[in-house]
Structures are given as C-alpha cells and as structure tokens.
Design goal:
With about 425 residues, the protein is of the alpha/beta class. The chain has 13 helices and 18 strands. The strands form five sheets. Strands 8-6-4-1-9 form a five-stranded parallel beta sheet, with helices on both faces. Strands 11, 12, 14, 15 and 16 form a five-stranded mixed beta sheet that branches. A four-stranded mixed beta sheet has the order 10-13-17-18. Strand 17 and strand 18 form a beta hairpin. Helix 2 packs across helix 7, helix 3 packs across helix 4 and helix 3 packs antiparallel against helix 6. The protein is globular, with a radius of gyration of 21 Å.
Length: about 425
C-alpha cells in the first residue's frame, strides 16, 4: 500500500553510482524519507517532488506523468538548499507535467469530507488534477504560455465551482472550502508561485528528457503502492493514478535500455489510509514497535496502520506487477517475525486473491477476512519465505534508514562507473 521504503532504496542506489532519478507517477503526496550522514551528522529529508537520490548529486527528472504543485516544489527546493543540496540545479521538468492548483486541492478535500466512507486521500489534489486532465477539463501544463496563466486559472476555478455546488451544504467545513474557491485573490497568489517556479527550473520536452535517460544510469522512482492502483487495487480505496510499473515501462519504450524491476516491500505490512488490511495488529505494544518516526499522523489518512507480513496481499501484488528482484526494508525492527499465510473467510481458506481489478463487493468481503499467522521465525527464514512466494531473489536487504544500512547482492546491477 506504499510507505515501503522506496525513497531509502533510491537513495542507496544513487550512493552506488546511479545518477539520474525519474519520478514517473503521482505527485506531491509522496513522502519518501531519506536519512543521510554528512560529516558525521544525521540529516533527514522527506522527498516529495524531488528525486530521493539528491543527497548523492543525482539529477531529478519529473516526467509528464507527474502532477506538480509549484508552491510545494519551491518550498522543497528551498529546504534542500538549506541542507546543502542544490536541488534546482539538479532538476528538469517535462513541459507536459500537469499543474495542481489550489482549486484541485480544495475540490479533493471537499469530496473526501463528503464521502460516507473515506477513501484515504492525501488531500493535496493529485487525483483531482489527473482525472481532470484525462477527462478534458480545464487545466494547465508546465510548458504552457505564461501569458495565458491567469485566464486558465480562472477557467479551472469556474469549472470547480460549478462541479462542486452539490457538495457545499454538507458541513461548515466544506462550506468554508467552497468560499475559498470564490475568492479570486487565490488566482493572483498562485500565478505568482507558478512564475517563480518557471524561473527556477529547467523545463524540457520529452525528446530531450529521453535522451538524458539514455546517457545516465537511471532509477525510476515510483510513488504509492501497487495495491492502491486504480485498475488493480480494492475499490474505492484506490488512487486515480497508476501505481504499477506501467507508466515507467511506457516512458522508456523504444529506448533500447536494459531494465531491472525492483519490488520494494517492508518485512511487515503497513497501510497509511482507509481500506482493507486483514492482518492489521490489535496489539498496541507491537504496533508501537512497527510504527516509524517519519510516518506521522495525518488529518486525511490517519495514523500508520501496521501488522505482520501478509503473503496473500504480496501474492496478489506480484500477480499485477512483475518484478525481477525484491528489496526488503525494516529488518532491524524485530528479532522474531510472523507472517500471514492465508485468510479465513466465512470458514473458507484463501491463499490467493487471483488476478485483476477488484470491485466494491470483493473489497467488502476482504474487510471481513481474518488473517492466519505463522509461528515465529527469524529474519533469514522470513527472507527465504519471501523469495519462495515471489519467485525472484531478495537482492537488497535494509536494516535501517540510511544507505550504509543496506546490503546488496552481487547479482544486482550496479553501474560500472
């Protein structure tokens, strides 16, 4: 479901010679936590839109599949500079990237607040902007003429006002958001942020960016998790964007590159947001051990939910997203581990969920499933079980947040330079 350590693994790979990171899906809802040791001091950064290899000087390329939040991008770049990282000098942005506006964010939050059952949205407007673009609604792309910016923002504003009128009376909170949509000054302020962003970043066409990828050792850094994918996840607890490797595969098609597909997972199960999680622990002592310092509570997603490793969900994830190897994180959390081998659903054992997207009826059945756990095993036995289930080797093991806490198998492709 995400929060598996993608940023930490990306950081590690860049410490070993990879020098370009392509963000190929999602947007500013990403929270990829990286710990870097600089001159003996521990530095932490939560990467949102910049690539997680920035501490090692890797360039960041934001592909056209990314949704960009200009004020947040400017702030993240400023924070990176305060930590000694020239973020903007390392950044390239595809001219086709969708721009998330305050109107997308407000609409996203209003829709989430009015749902009888929360979907677990991050509340930053990514899905709203992505769906608008797909549906041909008014929108903005990074490379568009700046002279048309205010007019386009007004078009988005008017479109959102019209589409949200039916939600405005739900509560005082949504009424307040609706009134924010009516405030025209928002357009002026946001337009100034967009102009600042364009003055700081290098905007390029896709052809130029594809040439850059051919010349570098590249990590494609995904966002969210496979089980949140809109086509393969458990409706309605899904994101409007694609979270498998599909967009990365599409982007590099025809480049004649050798790709190695890494599945990143924790040694236990986490979920930040609503939705089915049959193996979620009810043991508060265990939950405290498995939670981590960087995944704080969110007013939109709630707290990080935890449980022992769920092999049923792992099998399903692998059925919709093929990988060549596995990276397992969080191996420092426990001395002994358990795993969920199967579900008990109305007295029937389920080892597999099959393949393909799952609708609301199946999701509800999954909510009623009970996880059946193994006896305790050590970390080595857990890794062997993961390899057995996945059918591919575990080539990266992580016992902490920094690059120095990772161990890579000789079979993993490391750049020669």
């Amino acid at each position: 479901f995400g929060d598996e350590g993608k940023g930490s693994v990306t950081d590690f790979l860049c410490s070993r010679g990879y020098n370009l990171v392509v963000r190929y899906n999602g947007g500013p809802q990403a929270a990829h936590n990286v710990v870097f040791w600089k001159n003996g001091e521990r530095v932490h950064h939560c990467f949102s839109q910049f690539g997680s290899g920035s501490f090692y000087g890797a360039q960041t390329l934001l592909s056209r599949h990314m949704a960009i939040d200009p004020p947040a991008l400017l702030e993240e770049g400023r924070v990176l500079e305060s930590k000694g990282i020239p973020g903007f000098d390392l950044l390239r942005v595809d001219e086709g990237c969708t721009v998330i506006t305050p109107y997308h964010r407000m609409a996203n939050r209003m829709r989430e607040m009015t749902r009888s059952v929360r979907h677990g949205s991050c509340g930053v407007g990514v899905g709203e902007a992505v769906l608008d673009r797909e549906n041909g609604a008014p929108g903005i792309q990074v490379g568009e003429n700046a002279g048309h910016l205010r007019r386009k923002l007004e078009e988005i504003r008017e479109y959102k006002i019209e589409s949200l009128k039916g939600l405005r009376d739900f509560s005082q909170e949504t009424e307040s958001l609706f009134q924010d949509l009516l405030e025209k000054r928002v357009t002026e302020v946001f337009a100034s942020y967009c102009k600042q962003m364009i003055s700081r970043v290098r905007v390029s066409g896709e052809a130029e960016l594809r040439e850059a990828v051919k010349k570098h050792s590249t990590v494609f850094e995904g966002a969210q998790g496979v089980l949140l994918d809109r086509d393969s996840g458990f409706f309605p607890y899904v994101t409007p964007s694609k979270t498998t490797l599909a967009l990365a595969e599409e982007w590099i098609a025809g480049l004649d590159l050798e790709a190695h597909r890494v599945g990143v997972m924790r040694s236990y199960t986490v979920r930040h947001g609503a939705g089915p999680m049959p193996g979620e622990t009810k043991d508060e002592a265990l939950a405290r051990v498995l939670r981590d310092e960087h995944n704080i509570d969110s007013p939109w997603q709630g707290s990080l939910r935890t449980g022992w490793l769920d092999l049923v969900l792992l099998r399903y994830a692998l059925s919709v997203c093929k990988v060549d190897s596995i990276a397992v994180t969080g191996l420092d959390r426990m001395a002994e581990w358990r795993f969920c081998e199967k579900y008990d659903l109305a007295g029937e054992d389920f080892y597999s969920l099959g393949a393909g997207g799952r609708g609301g009826e199946f999701t509800q059945r999954l909510m009623d499933a009970s996880a059946c756990f193994s006896e305790p095993v050590d970390a080595r036995a857990l890794l062997q079980k993961i390899e057995s289930v996945c059918g591919v080797p575990v080539l990266i093991e992580s016992i902490g947040p920094a690059a120095r806490d990772k161990k890579v198998h000789p079979d993993f492709p490391i750049p020669e330079n």
